[in-house]
């Protein structure tokens, strides 16, 4: 299996001539206002399925999804947020766009396995730092498994994920520990709404993986969105102390995932 970073939280996984995408987006104003040119790249080929961890606009982009799976392609997503419009402003836009599309949208439950040969994908538990529904994903192909962490906070499911969906060969983890101040969640919390660099490294250790790929970093828009400083270096240092390797992929860069080794190379 091969992994290619698409920017922010997006990745493309390929195996045996097929591919899938996770959290593929093309544009989100908060991100594009601070991201350099080339921070988002297109998948190399059409995808058999699109996986989304949650329906925040920096993780679900319906137009981008349709461009890679087709107008009637398949999307796997977590359960809808049962809430009022005032309670769900971060998910209502993507919900409406998915409902209006011709996509084959399938709601998943935790621990459900789905077959899209050569891929087996499993939805695993996650906890959204802002209270919206979220799952994480384990994708298996060619005898390897890749974990994608959306933008989860630290929780107590890591051991179960490792036991039920492992072994995990490579974990893609959010690391920026962002503190979010938004009108519909008041009083605001000073605590991170996504894994910090140190928490992400510890999550990788509990998943019992050896190779970690950082994502979900590089946006700092105070006071609404405050990212922890020096996240990538702190993540690498913490992972090293725990005996794991960190593979930092630039958008468009790819790597072969193998048991016990990961070889990096530019995608063609």
Summarize, please.
The protein has 6 helices and 17 strands.
Helix/strand order, N-terminal first? EEEHEHEHEEEEEHEEHEEHEEE
Poorly predicted segments: 264-268
- Sheet/helix structural class: alpha/beta
Mean pLDDT: 94
The strand order across the widest sheet is 6-5-4-3-2-1-16-17
Amino- and carboxy-terminal Cα gap: 15 Å
Outline, from the CA principal axes? Answer: globular
Compute the number of strand runs: 17
User: Fraction of residues in helices?
Assistant: 10-25%
Number of helices: 6
CATH topology: Metallo-beta-lactamase, Chain A
Give the count of structural domains.
Answer: 1
Domain Metallo-beta-lactamase: 32-217
Protein name: Metal-dependent hydrolase
Keywords: Hydrolase
InterPro entries: Metallo-B-lactamas (IPR001279), RibonucZ/Hydroxyglut_hydro (IPR036866), UPF0173_UPF0282_UlaG_hydrolase (IPR050114)
């Amino acid at each position: 299996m091969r992994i290619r970073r698409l920017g922010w939280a997006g990745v493309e996984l390929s195996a045996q001539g097929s591919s899938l995408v996770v959290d593929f987006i093309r544009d989100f104003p908060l991100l594009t206002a601070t991201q350099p040119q080339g921070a988002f790249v297109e998948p190399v080929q059409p995808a058999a399925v699109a996986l989304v961890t949650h329906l925040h606009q920096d993780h679900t982009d319906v137009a981008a999804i349709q461009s890679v799976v087709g107008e009637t392609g398949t999307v796997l997503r977590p359960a809808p947020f049962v809430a009022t419009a005032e309670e769900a402003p971060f998910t209502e836009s993507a919900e409406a766009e998915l409902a209006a599309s011709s996509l084959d949208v399938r709601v998943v439950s935790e621990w459900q396995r789905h077959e899209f040969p050569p891929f087996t994908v499993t939805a695993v538990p996650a906890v959204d730092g802002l209270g919206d529904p979220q799952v994480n994903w384990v994708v298996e192909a060619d005898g390897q498994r890749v974990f994608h962490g959306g933008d989860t906070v630290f929780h107590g499911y890591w051991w179960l994920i490792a036991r039920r969906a492992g072994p995990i060969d490579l974990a893609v983890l959010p690391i920026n520990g962002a503190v979010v101040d938004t009108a519909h969640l008041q009083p605001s919390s000073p605590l991170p709404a996504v894994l910090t660099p140190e928490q992400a490294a510890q999550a990788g250790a509990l998943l019992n993986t050896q190779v970690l790929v950082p994502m979900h970093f590089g946006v700092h828009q105070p006071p609404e969105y405050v990212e922890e400083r020096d996240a990538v270096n702190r993540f690498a240092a913490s992972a090293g102390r725990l005996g794991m390797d960190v593979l930092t992929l630039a958008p468009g860069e790819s790597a072969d995932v193998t048991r016990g080794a990961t070889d990096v190379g530019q995608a063609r």
